[in-house]
Amino acid sequence: MQNANKPDPSELPSTAKLLKSTAVAVVVAAGLLVTIVLPAEYGTDPTRVGSLLGLTEMGRIKVQLAAEAKAEEAGLQPAATPPAVAAAPTAAVTPAATAPGVRTDETVLTLAPDQGAEIKLVMEEGARVRYVWSSSGGRINFDVHADRPGTSYHGYSKGSSRREEGDLTAAFTGSHGWFWRNRTGETVTITLQTAGAYTEVKRVV
Asked: What global pTM score does this model have?
């Protein structure tokens, strides 16, 4: 019994057409890899198209922040720069006109090119802090996170900016704060203002 549904050979695509379609798909995939994926994910831009689209800088920031977060998790924080290179942070408490259990501080950090610094606030679970920080120079890489005994890293947010502000609510009792890395090529000053329920301001890096 013959198969009535057997297609006519003339209706099937030829081998040449199949090879052509496959070649086109490979070329398109390779183009997307080179122009979109590599710049956005790895900061590699062989065609310069990623730079025009703003993807290369995003990729480089991802790579830098991922490396810094990995070093943090492994306990390989960069060593603090001697005082001769970077000034130690200053903290001034303003007790006037604040509610009980609430404190305000202003911390000033000077970062040389490629230098990192980290400020942590000691907070109880559920405590809130209002903060604003700014850079005197260009955009600074930042990572807002927390840690405690048994938890080396708990991320809140990260990115690259010249100024950030918002509210930080402690996910658990421990140390919560900011890590900055200066990739501008010039010395910058970071000013951090905090107000809320915390007991201590400490410089970790």
From this structure: 0.55
